Amino acid sequence: MAVVVPEPVARVKRALTVLGAEDTVTVFDSKVPTAAAAAATLGCDVAAITNSLVFDLEGAPLLILASGAARVDVLKVAAQLGGGKIRRASPDFVLEHTGQEVGGVAPVGHPAKIRTLLDESLKIHEVLWAGAGDHNSMFSITYEELHRITGAEEMPVR
User: Fold this and answer.
1) d(CA 155, CA 21)
2) Is the pLDDT of residue 141 over 80?
3) CA 28 from centre of chain
């Protein structure tokens, strides 16, 4: 019997292919909606989990790809961006701009391009794991490849 891939995960898989990245999407039997749950399932350091966090920057989406071991300092990020109020986005805002639910947001596969920042602390990991569109899916990628496919601005975010 064929496995039905949820549409948000299918969009991520297509985006990875279109962007010239390897499709390394893994679907787990159990949910991995947090960095801690993902790290436990994968047997890796929580710091190697790349959280895709959507913020509201003056009404526009801002995607911050941050280490699962880090807490984003929105004041620091706002200062580096030259100002503007950054707030955690509501679940509806996240779904509207990414087509994915909180806890399963991927760095790619969104309906439209989102301004993206990449946490420089992730560079120290040989392999990163990121959400792949839902609570049961993730994909592996290198920092360099993640930077390339997202076009993210690199900066310290904590």
Assistant:
1) 23
2) yes
3) 17
DSSP-derived 3-state class of residue 40: helix
What is the reported pTM?
0.95
123 vs 142: CA distance, rounded Å: 9
Query: pLDDT tens across 96-119, in order?
Result: 999 999 999 999 999 999 999 999
The separation between CA 113 and the C-alpha centre of its own chain, rounded to angstroms, equals: 13
For residue 102, give the amino acid letter: V
Partners of 118 in the beta sheet? 65, 154
CATH number assigned to the domain covering 7-155? 3.90.960.10
d(CA 143, CA 124): 8
Q: Is 54 exposed, middle or buried (0-12, 13-18, 19+ CB in 10 A)?
A: buried
* Residue ranges of domains in the chain: 7-155
Spatial CA neighbour of 67 closest among 138, 150, 125: 125
